[in-house]
Specification:
Layout: H1 2-16, H2 18-27, H3 32-62, H4 68-102, H5 108-132, H6 143-152, H7 163-189
Helix pairs in contact: 1-2, 1-3, 2-6, 3-4, 3-5, 4-5, 4-7, 5-6, 6-7
């Protein structure tokens, strides 16, 4: 139960006050390796499991066919694969693009912490669109741009004059990494 409270506390802090959360993470003196392991094992995996269960229930609730459990399970497997493999695909792309375009070097661990936190907001948007089944909730994905914008300067050290290009490119990479895996999984699932 304490893990769920911690996960919700982190997620609420990131969604409500992203600028302060990124500043706090940037000033944290914890070793990057242990922070990445902590964020992954104590936050991201718990959130994936919790959202995965809710996606199963939401898809199962809306499925009108006799094979609702199979449809819900296929949706959950696609969700878990895309949000488990997506951060690594995004980390690979961003570790190559960020130094090339913006000239800022980052450790793998710092970049993964950034990706885990931003993809957790993307997970929340995915959940809202699955639960409410309204295309209006796809607009929640736009908030990811703001989360990336807030992280650019304090957490990743991107110069202020280059934050717009960083936000656009990085958000696109984050969207595409999750979307590409979900699309490939959808092709194999049908």
């Amino acid at each position: 139960m304490n893990h769920i409270k911690l996960v919700l506390k982190y997620l609420v802090a990131l969604v409500v006050t992203p600028q302060e959360r990124w500043k706090m993470l940037a000033s944290d003196d914890q070793q990057p390796e242990s922070r990445e392991n902590h964020v992954f094992s104590e936050y991201y995996l718990y959130l994936m499991g919790f959202v995965g269960i809710l996606v199963f229930l939401a898809v199962g609730f809306y499925a009108r066919e006799s094979m609702w459990a199979a449809t819900a399970m296929r949706s959950v497997v696609t969700f878990l694969a895309s949000f488990f493999l997506g951060p690594y695909m995004a980390q690979f792309a961003l570790s190559w693009v960020i130094p090339l375009i913006w000239g800022v070097e980052h450790t793998k661990e710092r970049l993964l912490v950034f990706i885990y936190y931003t993809m957790s907001v993307q997970m929340l948007a995915y959940l809202l669109t699955e639960i409410f089944r309204a295309s209006l909730f796809n607009l929640v994905y736009i908030y990811l741009f703001y989360i990336v914008w807030c992280a650019a300067l304090p957490y990743l050290g991107i110069p202020a004059r280059r934050r717009i290009s960083f936000t656009i490119v990085t958000s696109t990479v984050l969207f595409l990494s999750q979307w590409l895996i979900a699309t490939v999984m959808g092709l194999f699932g049908n």
